[in-house]
């Protein structure tokens, strides 16, 4: 029985579901004991996923929970890539059974590419070769954008190819799969994560990348991963053997050769990381499987992690984690020692937060009730659970200092000690958080990841990873702050947004690259960050503009019906009368203007655009200026009203764009700070140079 | 020997786990779902059977609830129509157990049932009262057997007594009424008099047909159960495996558990039950971790 179709599994003889779904049943075991008690065999497919982050920790917790509920059932784990089958068999209470039999043998080949030879050329060559022999090819890459670029490249060579990754809509993925199965598509370019779950083989599998960007560094794929992908090669009954091609640099073949030997890595417990351990411990209390620490200790001792540790060590870890979670209000312990998960605890579990982060946020709320958007962003990037923090070099400090001095920020009013306790970080880790926050803030203002990344010398993929992490933590923070009783302010009069609203707005901003005004659109029910961005792109830059719009104009935007447009406009009107967008505009104390850049210094001079303008070249061509050096050249001219006009998208939104700034600078406009003197600096109570000398990188792993 | 019921087969000799419904013993609701792995039938007292759901997978033996007569505030009430009730008042609330109510519930929910009897504890030394209880035990039995003819309920005549002769006489009279199967009560307070109980059992068994079932209420201690089986008992019931587990005790001599959780208590209890049934050689309990059903499933 497929549980998606029938919510009551009690009638089924065989239940097929994802680990997450089965875990839901195990977490609510008292409601499902009637049938869970009757399960005789639990088959865990892809047992090696035990060592993949949160999914792995969940699977380990799930198997442990199930065995706690029903110790009479047998557990059978299946996998093609286990480095430590005996240890895993011992844990699940079984025997290791190993077979090297493969219905279709694999033939491995390393395809070297020279330094000056693009890997895409190699892919084209390999695909052509197999297509000529009536075969099909799956090309595995490690990034979503790469799937698209390779597909384009293959198409340019006349090859019918399709991309396949988790970021595509289901319809697109289904179409790609169907096309591949029917033979219409010769090459499928997919990300590895999708490769695991999908079972359509091909004559040849090409691994374009043997490394991936993870936790701020390039990391070799594991042998297990490579073999999982390679396993798609060879179609039963059609191919004599499956071909696996590893693309490796000519100057370094060691890693690639290592893969072919097939020495699988041991599968290790993910509970050794605090995030996983905390979550699984929370679940044991949340599900009422344990009511006291002693009981939880016994359950945790039965995990895979417990195999490698003594019960005493596990007990110590449980005690320490419980104490910390009680301090963070995630657990509540009464005088008899009975423990309950709190609402905050459940939220933390949902968003995968450890107690350390929750504690630092508690301090943040208490010490900085009027935290600015930037303060919040730094706090998110500094949180112990933020896994995509950018690194910093000493060379960055001056640039970063310059940038933060311009940000409205309460952090600088704190003493160093308080700042450390509120942020949960200090020294280089805190500066790393600042750099990450600055890049993300630039992204919210510029709406362009590449430009934001370049401003602070970061890589686009780093920023992308940081963006996702910031959104996760902001959602968690909003949920957490929202869960506490607050003083209800008189909404009609409030002109300053509270922490919850700020976190919500910031979340929309970071999610879709919206500025302070654009984020106000996300206040409307049914308008998510992505839709808000679409509205901004169509010229409805904030809630006030939308409130005054005509439904037919709004309905002209892709994906919005006339009916919906009407409702949104009505809601926008109501929100505007309550305070609306103005509530999010932070007044920058230094200059008395908004950083939202509409009416600011020098007709809305924005620091980030000023920074970008420095790199541009301005040429006078007749009555206009040709500005180059950005992604595309743009023309600036003097309009009828005597003001400058530019043909870029930014200017069309009424902003003082970087091109106009460059022209004004060339004209020697006194309101544009000279590029060689620097932007006017604030007082800067938060001195990064001091932070730098403060400490080395903390003990926290960079991931 | 096997007895077929409309909910499955009961293999003899059978060791029946006692279970309850309601909020009084929440542990039972954690244990019960696992019992089909280890037992063929459940024993439920009349009192708890009232809240029992019809969904129970295993066949059920519902006793008469006559045990209530030993509780405070309870009395035997003779009726003009030749039957007797148990009337119990606790703080103004009056509860009456009648032969009709017992039989009706058994018809509704049980595969096996026993007639409403009146226990005669060893401490009761008034000969008139003893005779009176035995008399009404038999009167109720007579009525019940007449009212369950042609139904699927397997009705056991409840045997009471205070010495060997009174037990045997009671059994003889029940058999004479037409009862085939008998259930012996009053054994728990006489548990220390092992030889006496075994002698009573042997004599009653000798009166019965070879394919008749002889049940001994409340007997669970493995050593005693073994002897009772040898003396001719076909089935026993006990809740002592749960009581031991509730305080974290294990019968198999393994490590006991400090402050066990609900699930841990449940599995301790199941372990104790399994140990006891294996000990007495009742033989068909499935060993922990190697359920026979599973073996069939994955035999490749």
N-C termini distance of chain A: 39 Å
How would you characterize the largest beta sheet of chain A?
6 strands, parallel
Overall outline of chain A: globular
> What proportion strand of chain B?
15-25%
- Please report the number of helical segments of chain A: 32
Share in helix of chain B: 25-40%
User: What structural class is derived from the secondary structure elements of chain A?
Assistant: alpha/beta
Mean pLDDT of chain A: 84
Which range best describes the helical content of chain A: under 10%, 10-25%, 25-40%, 40-55%, 55-70% or over 70%?
40-55%
Shape of chain B, please? globular
DSSP strand count of chain A: 18
* Cα-based radius of gyration of chain A, to the nearest Å: 28 Å
With strands numbered from the N-terminus, the spatial order across the biggest sheet of chain B is 3-4-5-9-10-11-12-13
- The portion of residues forming beta strands of chain A comes to 5-15%
Q: What summary fits the major beta sheet of chain B?
A: 8 strands, parallel, barrel
Can you walk through the features of this model?
The complex is a heterodimer of chains A (703) and B (300). Chain A has 703 residues and is an alpha/beta fold. Chain A is built from 32 helices and 18 strands. In chain A, the strands form 6 sheets. Chain A has a 6-stranded parallel sheet with strand order 3-10-7-4-6-5, with helices on both faces. In chain A, strands 15-16-17-18 form a 4-stranded antiparallel sheet, covered by helices on one side. A two-stranded parallel ribbon of chain A has the order 1-2. In chain A, helix 11 (274-286) packs across helix 15 and helix 20 (427-446) runs antiparallel to helix 32. Residues 486-495, 587-603 and 697-703 of chain A have low confidence and may be disordered. Chain B is an alpha/beta fold and 300 residues long. Chain B is built from 10 helices and 13 strands. In chain B, the strands form 3 sheets. Chain B has an 8-stranded parallel beta barrel with strand order 3-4-5-9-10-11-12-13, surrounded by 4 helices. A 3-stranded antiparallel sheet of chain B has the order 6-7-8. In chain B, strands 1-2 form a two-stranded antiparallel sheet. The relative contact order of chain B is 0.13.
